[in-house]
Amino acid sequence: MKLYTFWRSNATYRVRVALNIKGLTAEKASIDLLMGDQFEADFQAVNPARAVPALVLDDGGPALFESMAIMEYLEEVHPRPPLLPSDPRSRARVRALAQIVVADAHLLGVPRVRKLLTEGFKFDETQLARWQHHWQNEAMTSLEGHLARDRETGRFCHGEAVTMADICLAGHVIAAQMLKVDLKPYPTVSRIAEECFAQDAFAREHLLKQPGAPGVPA
Question: Which of 65, 78, 71, 69 is nearest to 31 (CA)?
């Protein structure tokens, strides 16, 4: 397998963690989203959406794309250890928690959105930071509300084992930390994130440990 990734991409972070948990390895190819590598013809042939992650399977064919779809594929093809609970209602809860991050918050801070805000709408650094903090906090508030209230919450988002929800939550917390978002109002989110970061599958994929990150050789 070959995974197209970028050190700063939270979406590829999710896939890298999922691969680790499943005990799978993939060759990694960096696509620098800040330098515009995603617009090169060679990569557009891999993923016309011009985004990472993209996962090319060993048997060829079109690349898999979108982090949630890739994690769902890995779950179906490599079901052990599971990233979704066994019963439908629990699976729905885990997917919904994941979507708070993936659908409600993450997409509002990706490079193409930041580029439109700064170049199209002339946001300065203060306005851009306010935008990013707002959507980070919106997602955190939603996650904290569900996780602190629901009896299904355990050591992790759902019970005592890692699920897709934890992978998404951990990435969101990393992004919040990099943006210097105050996490004190979100104690349950913070506790679960620390449980995740204590595991090697998460820890070694931290954005700031990836090739090309500040202080890390490319």
Answer: 65
